[in-house]
Amino acid sequence: MVTESPTTPETEDFSAMTTFNRHGAPEHGVGHDRRGLGGSAGHFVRHYIEMVVAMFAGMIVLGVPASWALKAFGTGTSELTDAAPALMLLGMAVTMTVPMVAWMRYRSHGWRANAEMAGSMVLPTLAAIGVLAAGVMTDIDTLLAVEHVAMLLGMLAAMLLRLDEYTRHHGHAHADGDLQAATA
Fold first, then answer.
1. Sign of the CA dihedral 19, 21, 27, 32?
2. Do the beta carbons of residue 167 and residue 43 sit within 8 Å?
3. Cα-atom radius of gyration of the chain, to the nearest Å?
4. Neighbours of 103 (CB within 10 A)
């Protein structure tokens, strides 16, 4: 006679709940990992943190070469901030958005999600430039702080509007499902 031992979250075999993507890699979807923040809330929080890290990494990784390029033209970031603050704001938005979109593509998010997330970065930048041009706020440090808070809130709003996109596991293979869906 075969007896089964009781299962607990620590010992339960989750292999029966594993699905596989079109590349044959295992995907552990929403609710499959019941320990810690491994479920849908964990995916959501992890994605948000990854996007913030990508933003700040981009400011460093892309900002340093941009600073070198400005120096090659006989200027620097301080001069750009004083002489053309709108251009500085746009440059900063680009250095944060590009790596964020690249990371999202790496994590298999589709182009629509990438465009929405990029919009959450670009729209606050355009608003900040408008506020600056109108003379409503001229202190660039305060404007940068407001812009960055708006970007972070915009990212959160984009994610909350598409919970299904941000609460499930995404693999590391590039998703070409958007192209296939668009041409089908």
1. negative
2. yes
3. 21
4. 20
31, part of any domain: no
Overall residue count recorded for the chain in this entry: 184
Closest CA to 97 of 128, 139, 129, 51: 51
Range of the domain at 81: 39-168
Q: Is residue 46 part of a domain?
A: yes
Q: How many domains does the chain have?
A: 1
What is residue 24's predicted lDDT score, i.e. its pLDDT?
Answer: 55
Mode of pairing for the β-strands spanning 26-27 and 19-20: antiparallel
Mean pLDDT by 10 residues, the chain (184 residues): 47 44 51 52 90 92 87 86 89 93 92 94 96 94 94 94 83 44 40
CB 117 within 8 A of CB 104: yes
pLDDT score at 78:
83
- For residue 178, tell me if it sits in a domain: no
Q: Is residue 113 part of a domain?
A: yes
Beta bridge partners of 20: 26
